[in-house]
Amino acid sequence: MRAYPLAAREHNAQREPIALTDEQLTHFVAAGYLPLESSLPASYHRLIFERFNEIQQSYGHFGNNLLPLVPELGELFDDPVVKGALQTVLGKEYSMHPHRALHANPPGSPEQSFHKDSYWGYVRRVRNHRPWWVMIMYFPQSTPVRKGPTAVMRGSQHLNQHPGSYCKPASISGKAGSLVLIHYDIWHRKMLNQTDLNRYMFKFEFTRLNPPVACDRGPWQPLTRNIKPDLTPVWKSVWDWLTGRTALQATSQAQSVQALFSELGSQDEWRGIRASYELSQCGKMALQPLLDALNTNRRGYDEKRRYSDNGSLWRDDAVARNAAHGLVNMGRPAVKGLLDVLVNGGARARKHAAFALGEIGHMSATSGLVDSLRDAEVHVRVAAMEALGLLDCTAAGLDAMLAALHDPASEVRFDAALSLMRATTKTSETLRARCVAPLGAALYDTNRYVSGYAVEALERIGSKAALAELLPFLRTSRWCAHTDNQRPF
To answer: Is residue 190 within a helix (H) or strand (E), and if so which, with residue range?
Structure first.
């Protein structure tokens, strides 16, 4: 029997989370990643490495069972460095995604191509510029460049187009206990391991549950280090959102709306992204052109589910996607027009309108988003379901989320469970009580991630009735971390 690292547990219990500095947060917002070093002792990282080095020889692929297999790994997320970084970017209310992955890079393993991860098979959702989702990658052993660390493309987190030469690669190398906090959508890859030693990386995903609140950080400051492409309007917008500055200041610049509009579909995607944010600052004169741009491509969707993105489909949604981000940055004045598009637009327009309404977060969108959960197009239902979960919860919204737990598309059910889990942080005890039985049934959904978020939602509700649904499920699904092929009893 192996001993639990109680020293790591005591270390974490005695320390407060360490928030990111303004300089660190600025780097994360612009570059899309931030290297960190765990404050846990070297003995902890050595234990994690040795444990996984051992079980690699005795298990097959254990998928999402990292934490029940080696519960010691959970101490990493109470490390004040890790917790402080996550709280800075996601707020104090955040959730760990049920998907967890070990990425082994043994000697001789080929390096990957640069790619974006999916959100468990998502090609249907619109990727957020605002960091609602992040990942932590953790290296328990010393990982110099020769040992094949992860590489990221600096500043590529907002690009759906393959970054090519636009962005510079950076390798995440460092000593044992090195971590990197990344925007979920950054382009990255596994590098070539040129040694005869094993390299492990653990990847965990986290999502914000509520919009940011105002904090005492100052305004956006220009970068001290050059990052290309220059998406300063996007970076400033993300900073303002993270720090609670939501009121967009329209500029009096005399830039031509028509000239900016023509850039939305640029062959260089970053130019279109930048133009969308500059359009949003032009006030009322840019509102209708941006709304019209949502309907630029009226062809329906026919792509199959994919688990990573190589950028091959980036152009299909480019103009609508860029327009949607511009409308998000415009905020409240765009809501009425977006609600009209949600009813009368083409499939791509309806999807992006739903996304924008969720990001803006105004309660007047509730009824329209509820109606969109009956849309025949699954892409629209996915966007509407997640958007509804970003709004304050109403009785009508809650009923729609509960009904969506029975949607035939697993991605819609996943978003319904996530939205209900978000709702538990901001709704009344009476409304939470209505969720208990449906979430209890969702524990047994055929999709593991619907079940995973139902578990967390019931835990957060925490009532006697919620625990009565939850505990029997957990009791039968318990994994014994002391049992493996070498020690079966």
So the answer is: strand 188-190
Average pLDDT, the chain: 92
Q: Are β-strands 188-190 and 150-153 bridged in parallel, bridged antiparallel, or unpaired? A: antiparallel
Total residues belonging to the chain: 489
- Report how far apart, in Å, the C-alpha atoms of 202 and of each of 49, 67, 234 are: 11, 11, 30
- How are beta strands 178-183 and 133-139 bridged, if at all? antiparallel
Residue among 49, 34, 45, 40 nearest 8 (CA): 40
In the numeric block, the tokens 């040694």 are attached to: 195
What does the radius of gyration of the chain's CA atoms come to, in whole angstroms?
Answer: 23
On the 0-12 / 13-18 / 19+ scale of CB atoms within 10 A, 232 is middle
Identity at 310, one-letter amino acid code: N
Contact present, 29 and 238 (Cβ < 8 Å): yes
Phi, psi angles (nearest 5°) of residue 207: -130, 140
> What's the token pair of residue 28?
């994360």
Q: How many Å from the N-terminal Cα to the C-terminal Cα in the chain?
A: 11
List 181's β-bridge partners, or say none. Answer: 34, 136
Taking the C-alpha atoms of residue 373 and residue 367, their distance in angstroms, rounded to an integer, is 10
Closest CA to 5 of 69, 75, 53: 75
DSSP label at residue 155 = T
Half-sphere exposure (Cβ direction) of 197: Cα atoms closer than 13 Å: 14
Give the span between the Cα atoms of 356 and 325, in whole angstroms: 7
Whether the per-residue pLDDT at 221 is higher than 60: the answer is yes
43, 247, 248, 277 from 251: Cα distances, Å = 55, 13, 9, 11
Q: Which of 39-53, 55-69, 266-280 has the lowest mean pLDDT?
A: 55-69
Residue type at position 31:
A
Ramachandran angles phi, psi of 189, nearest 5°: -160, 165
| 250 confidence band (pLDDT: 50, 70, 90) | low
Hey, what are 287's tokens? 């509102």
Distance in angstroms (rounded) separating the CA atoms of residues 332 and 127:
20
